[in-house]
Design brief:
The protein is α+β, with helices and mostly antiparallel strands. Helices cover 50% and strands 16% of the residues. α2 crosses α6, α9 crosses α11 and α10 packs parallel to α12.
């Protein structure tokens, strides 16, 4: 009995070459379909130091896959039809992200589509061999800035604690603090997010290239996450100490950012240098992969798989365009009532924090007075929302972190009686000009109220899908308070109960206006 000869190497190489060209065709086609999404990713890489590494991810992934070229020639290239369904579902996720203006969802779904297209064309066995390069592509997605507020808080906590332990008197308000030689603030650049992302990516790549044992890989990746966080805390403390001891001659202005990158670079080099002592040689044993079943003809040919990938993704951009083209264009007129209970409308109080609400098609800010007490109301209405002009946007804020006049002391959620129902609202305690203010804000979308940005994005997307448009609004109420006392609550809560019917009617009428 004669054994069947294996597939000739030349035939295997030819099939792999055909699959490679099919992958190029599919990637180019998917990028064309999701062009705005791909372009927005590149724009973020260009303008943000945190995500500049995005330019390196695709070349690195291609190189990592190329290293496996000889192993790829040992397995059959059998297009995997179920991955086409994955591309279709990723397209639906992209549509929700597009309608809700959630850039991260669009970016991830675009990247999932590219990964699934490669799996669809190569098949499971070949894709398993290049599983790491495929997963590594996710580092191209600019994601992680949501960690910034938490990491800023923890950096400020450590810095203040370390300064006090060093015997330096310190006064803290939020993430701003004053020591005898000057004042300091923990802003976005001090959060350490950029260090964390760069270290995590480097740790994952190093672990893949130089380690074979799973527990060693896991330990290095955990170290690459923990070390930059702790190093950033130490960096912030040392910068303040250098500034303090040099009478603010050193480590102030832009040079402390340079010191930060130098310090981070030294720490990461030390991490990988130490990790190199436990590097393991490639033992030549191929990674485990799904066992091959009896050879059967594939459901799809390689060219058909590439075309099917584009077909599965193609409907969603067209549906998005169709839904967006029906949105109303009108600009509503926001007229707030002249009187709210005992409160009468007066000229806007200028010496209080005013929220930044860019992108609104209409906005109105007024103040109300009752004796010597005043409350300011800010309403911004959004329509035909797009990237950078959404109601729930990082630029739509009460106070900028680097604002020199107003400082955020605390942020939390609390219930607000609105239309005789409790609505959870964001509450921000603000200091500035020798006074403190409490700002209460929430969102309105298609008749519903919420304070959570993620819910706002989902409601906007669903409203578009149902043909109700994307009208949304943000309401901000600001009142003066004393230190940490709850007196602003006693002003805002009864005022909000009186104001709620007028605001609800105004937003409903504005949403109905074309």
């Amino acid at each position: 009995m004669e054994l069947a000869s294996p597939r000739p190497p030349f035939a295997a190489a030819t099939t792999l070459r055909s699959a490679t060209w099919a992958i190029v065709f599919a990637v180019v086609g998917l990028t064309a379909l999701y062009w705005n999404t791909a372009a927005s990713m590149v724009a973020i890489w260009s303008r943000s130091e945190t995500f500049t590494h995005g330019f390196l991810i695709a070349p690195l992934a291609v190189w990592l896959a190329w290293r496996q070229r000889h192993r790829l020639q040992t397995v059959p290239i059998r297009p995997f039809a179920p991955a086409i369904l994955g591309i279709f579902l990723a397209g639906f996720g992209w549509l929700l992200g597009e309608l809700g203006s959630v850039a991260a969802a669009q970016h991830f779904c675009y990247m999932f589509s590219l990964q699934l297209a490669i799996v669809a064309i190569l098949g499971l066995e070949a894709s398993w061999i290049i599983a790491f390069p495929l997963v590594f592509l996710l580092f191209a997605v600019p994601f992680g800035e949501f960690l910034m507020p938490v990491m800023m808080d923890r950096t400020a906590d450590f810095t203040v604690t370390a300064l006090r332990a060093s015997g330096i008197p310190i006064f803290r308000e939020g993430n701003h603090f004053v020591i005898p030689t000057g004042s300091w603030s923990v802003v976005e650049a001090c959060s350490g997010v950029r260090y964390l992302i760069a270290s995590f990516m480097g740790g994952v790549l190093f672990a893949h290239l130089y380690y074979r044992t799973p527990y060693k890989k896991a330990l290095l990746i955990l170290a690459s996450i923990a070390l930059p966080v702790v190093a950033n805390w130490v960096r912030a403390y040392l910068i303040v100490m250098i500034g303090h001891l040099s009478d603010n001659e050193l480590a102030v202005g832009a040079d402390h950012l340079i010191y930060g990158w130098v310090f981070f670079g030294v720490v990461i080099l030390l991490l990988f240098w130490v990790a190199s002592f436990w590097a393991e040689d490639d033992d030549g044993i191929p990674a485990a992969r799904p066992a091959s079943a009896a050879v059967k003809p594939p459901l799809l040919t390689i060219p058909a798989a590439a075309l099917a990938c584009l077909a599965a993704a193609g409907a969603w951009p067209m549906l998005s365009l169709a839904l967006t083209s029906t949105l109303p264009y009108g600009t509503p007129s926001l007229t707030l009532p002249e009187q709210v209970g005992p409160w009468k409308q007066v000229p806007l109080v200028e010496d209080s924090p005013h929220p930044r609400l860019p992108g609104a098609v209409a906005a109105r800010s007024v103040s109300y007075a009752n004796g010597d007490q005043t409350i300011s109301v800010h309403v911004a209405f959004f329509r035909r929302q797009m990237d950078g002009q959404e109601v729930a946007n990082s630029d739509n804020i009460i106070v900028r972190v680097d604002d020199r006049t107003w400082k955020i002391i605390r942020e939390r959620n609390r219930p607000l009686n609105w239309l005789n129902e409790p609505v959870v609202a964001n509450t921000t305690l603000i200091s500035g000009g020798g006074n403190r203010f409490e700002a209460v804000d929430f969102y309105w979308v298609d008749g519903r109220y919420t304070n959570r940005r993620s819910i706002v994005k989902l409601l906007v997307a669903l409203s578009k899908l149902l043909g109700h448009g994307d009208d949304a609004a943000r309401v901000v109420i600001v009142a003066r308070t004393a230190d940490d006392a709850p007196d602003a609550h006693s002003l805002i809560d009864p005022f909000a109960r009186e104001l709620a019917p007028a605001i609800d009617r105004l937003l409903a009428e504005s949403g109905a206006a074309e």
